[in-house]
Amino acid sequence: MAIATINPTTGETLRVFDEIGDAEIERKIGLAHERWRSYRSTSFAQRAEWLRASADLMEKDVEELARLMTTEMGKTLDSARAEVRKSANGMRYYAEHAEGFLADEPLADPSVVGASRALGRYQPLGVVLAVMPWNFPLWQVMRFAAPALMAGNVGLLKHASNVPQSAVYLEEVLRRGGFPEGCFQTLLISARKVEPILRDPRVVAATLTGSEPAGRSVAAICGDEVKHTVLELGGSDPYVVMPSADLDAAVATAVRGRVQNNGQSCIAAKRFIVHTDIYDAFAEKFVERMRALRVGDPLDEATEIGPLATEQGRTDVEELVADAVGSGAKVLCGGQRPDRPGWFYPPTVITEITRDMRMFGEEVFGPVASLFRVADIDEALEIANATSFGLGSNAWTNDPVEQDRFIDELYAGQVFINGTTTSYPELPFGGVARSGYGRELSAHGIREFCNLKSVWIG
């Protein structure tokens, strides 16, 4: 894929970037490694000052930055502005809390290990490579960069090839905020250049958010090199609705949960599993609201659904829908690309999904909802867990016993009751099974790229 900004609303190529060569890659890795030697000794207060200044700059750039993201990957202006503010909030969160999260952990009674003093101390690892996706061009990066920089690590960013201007901006805003040159650098490279960087001994760890194949590749290389990784991969999140739920709230949230970011979110609700007692009422309201969503130019403030980010992404969605329909699934709304320029796909609801259809087991990365009818909570849990993924999950019920069962029995990194999965700096974020491993955000996220050193003093 070319490193280029291609407007998904029109298909027009707006700007093309040259891939940097091996000599420039070597220079940037060398700079990062040398910078870490001094940066690791900076104080938490100094790092926090730079990070807060960068957050302030990002918020001042909100309108320009929102239009840039919308033009590069098609999210609506409103959601782009929200992403800018969320990223700045995450930066301030780690500026405030990093020192406490990484404080020494003394053993209450060191005499039990024969010491006068014993503790655990968190120390930065070094140069970390981040391989990031296009769907949240700022937030995906900042939820790595903010804690990593506050911990004393330095970062190299290989961003998705279709958001190069967002990638360049991220390096620039951190430099404008005061971080020394080399603390965070963007690498405008293709995927084929990632392996040599991962194998470079100066690069000590990696984090990837993206597809399962990409995660497998990075994990295999880093496993061979014995390097730490954090992977956040795909998801096919269940959204269960039981009879005791507030139906109108469940429907409204279901629509938002499915079409957030034009349906291109790993943690978007994708499989809607509804108890038979309320299935018909839910389906009617859900389809009506999905059908009514306004699809159009994401730069238009009235638009609710913009285009998919890439032409291949739309093709992938179309193929999954065609496979299901060809095997007997029923389309309740949508299901056909509109006759217009750009990579648009309408909000779609499909029912009568069977286990032999690709859609049952694969992630649909677009505004397509699968609707299932179930007889009871046992069947709901069985279908919810009948996936190779385990990222987020959602359940709507006001029955405390049912809530406890969903919390305990949904196999996922996150369970949201009477809501839909989202990410907060305060809560750990990540998955199980083929959705990856490790955690981002909260105290757990900043500690992922630290050495927890045991200290014993006799």
TrEMBL record:
Q: Name one Pfam family in it.
A: Aldedh
- Which top-rank group of organisms is this from? Bacteria
The chain positions of domain Aldehyde dehydrogenase read 3-455
Q: Which organism is it from?
A: Pseudonocardia eucalypti
Q: Does the keyword Lipid metabolism apply?
A: no
The record's family statement is: Belongs to the aldehyde dehydrogenase family.
Q: Could you tell me what this protein is called?
A: NADP-dependent succinic semialdehyde dehydrogenase
User: Keywords assigned by UniProt?
Assistant: NADP, Oxidoreductase
What InterPro entries does this protein's entry cite? Ald_DH/histidinol_DH (IPR016161), Ald_DH_C (IPR016163), Ald_DH_CS_CYS (IPR016160), Ald_DH_N (IPR016162), Aldehyde_DH_dom (IPR015590), ALDH_GabD1-like (IPR044148), GABD/Sad-like (IPR047110)
